[in-house]
Amino acid sequence: EPEVTQTPSHQVTQMGQEVILRCVPISNHLYFYWYRQILGQKVEFLVSFYNNEISEKSEIFDDQFSVERPDGSNFTLKIRSTKLEDSAMYFCASSVWTGELFFGEGSRLTVL
Amino acid sequence: GESVGLHLPTLSVQEGDNSIINCAYSNSASDYFIWYKQESGKGPQFIIDIRSNMDKRQGQRVTVLLNKTVKHLSLQIAATQPGDSAVYFCAENTEAAGNKLTFGGGTRVLVKP
User: What's the first-to-final CA gap in chain A, in angstroms?
Assistant: First the structure.
């Protein structure tokens, strides 16, 4: 069964460092997303991406965040200068249309 | 503001019994609702969805009910099994919001053997 895959599963970084989280969406999907979940809290929308551009972003997704689809298979989330409060589980998701989202297993980011 | 919330943070249920998880939403413009299951250390897994032009939808052992009058959504799990132990989130979407899902706070379901 096709699935969204994410790497790394866990990354520990120092505050102020750049982090890149990688995702391989399901191959025939057209819409890509990043969500995050701070420990014990609800899942929060960060950004959606379609047709090689951001279609929507939340207020969390500030100038420190960026997304890219560098090739036909990868979708990345970059955090330029990490802060302590960026520590969370980051989920990539993809969908065929603006409906059912399929989530990856997540990348846990720990900022020290 | 817009919000999707859950009434019960934890639900303990005996194996074999039915489970009912509730969710309230405040955005009357919401037109698409989804239930996700999240097991420990994993990403949300799609269970079932329903559009606002329906009030009931059934899947395998699961039923989602939508009451637009009181803006209430529920997930019923029949014959709950140990593998159903997880956190369940409702999420809502509006066509105007693109695919920006708004998730509720989650309900933990614990299945007792």
Answer: 37
What's the CA gap between B48 and B24, in Å, rounded? 17
Tell me which DSSP letter residue B109 carries.
E
CATH number of the domain residue A34 falls in: 2.60.40.10
| Chain B, window 93-112: residues with a beta carbon less than 8 angstroms from a chain A beta carbon | 93, 95, 97-106
Rounded CA-CA distance B111/B78 in Å is 12
Q: What residue ranges define each of the domains in chain B, with the CATH number in brackets?
A: 4-112 (2.60.40.10)
In tens, the pLDDT along A51-68 reads: 899 999 999 999 999 999
A89/B41 Cα distance (integer angstroms): 9
Query: CB distance from B34 to chain A under 8 Å?
Result: yes
Residue A49's domain comprises 5-111
Stretch A18-39: mean pLDDT, rounded? Answer: 94
SS (H, E, C) chain A: CCCCEEECCEEEECCCCCEEEEEECCCCCCEEEEEEECCCCCEEEEEEEECCEEEEECCCCCCCEEEECCCCCCEEEEECCCCHHHCEEEEEEEECCCCCCEECCCEEEEEC
- State pLDDT tens for residues B82-108: 999 999 999 998 766 667 888 888 899
**Count of the separate structural domains present in chain A:** 1
Looking at the partner chain, which of B42, B49, B101 has a beta carbon nearest the beta carbon of A45? B101
